[in-house]
Design brief:
mainly alpha; Four Helix Bundle (Hemerythrin (Met), subunit A); 9 helices; 65% helix
Length: 206
Amino acid sequence: MALEEDVMVHFGNWWLVAIWIVIYAIFLLFVPFYKKSQVKPAGVYAAFIVAFAVEMFGVPFSMFIIGWLFGIWLPEGILWGHTLGQYIGDWGTWIGALVSLAGAFFVISGWSKIHKEYWSKETGQGHLVKTGIYKYIRHPQYTGFFLITVGVMMTWVTIPLLLLYCLLLFLYYGLAKREEKDMEAEFGDEYVRYKETTKMFIPYII
């Protein structure tokens, strides 16, 4: 009972919920919303962030659902609470934060190259971006979203986050494949050769 009371102090902090939603939602500013195809994946990312913030600082829905269905209180780190805390202590939180920061780097650096070199094609100066982070992977912004959300789950994983993460992977993979077809239509053989020398999401791997 004392443990439950201890844990519940962590929740009900709705001002923290709002702050964390704003912090993580900022990265949505780095995706091109003028493309209709971006709306669903971005919406799933937003839902992931809201679910994370609410379950971490607001109301532990996953814990309540498991308790209601099975009548048990799972140990912290098992579908609620600090995911890696019981295994490596505070290092779990720091590792998760570093992974999320790496994701932020991918999002911002990818956006920066595209904004300067590809989107400027309307002025007649744009071209296929193959330098910087694009020398190694073709979709750094999507890799960034994958890393940000993985970092979140290293800190605090729940049932909704696991489900939304799988959906996020599925939608962004599909979006990446559609975008590559568009790029082939726009740049032809140049893009085909570029695909042969790079990976989609992880340098030298996939």
